[in-house]
Design goal:
There is one protein chain. By secondary structure, this protein is α+β, with helices and mostly antiparallel strands. It has one domain (2-59). The protein contains one helix and two strands; from the N terminus they run H-E-E. Strands 1-2 form a two-stranded antiparallel sheet. The radius of gyration is 22 Å and the shape is rod-shaped.
Length: 62
C-alpha cells in the first residue's frame, strides 16, 4: 500500500512539473500582448475567423 501511495505522489509531482514547464518548452505565451491591432474594413463587424493562413473579417453590411 505504501508503494502505491509513493507512485501516486510521484505521478502527481511529475504532472505538475510537466504542466509548469509546458509553456516554456513549446513557446506558448501565458499572457499574450496585442502585437498588431487593426480596424475593421467594414462599418458593422460581426466576427473573425482564422483558417490557419488568413484572418477573415465578417461584416453585417456585406
Amino acid at each position: 500500500m505504501k508503494t502505491k501511495t509513493c507512485v501516486i505522489q510521484l505521478v502527481c509531482a511529475l504532472s505538475v512539473l510537466f504542466f509548469a514547464l509546458t509553456p516554456a518548452v513549446f513557446g506558448v505565451e501565458i499572457t499574450p500582448d496585442i502585437s498588431d491591432p487593426f480596424y475593421s474594413p467594414g462599418t458593422d463587424p460581426v466576427g473573425l475567423a482564422y483558417d490557419g493562413t488568413y484572418l477573415w473579417n465578417a461584416d453585417a453590411d456585406d
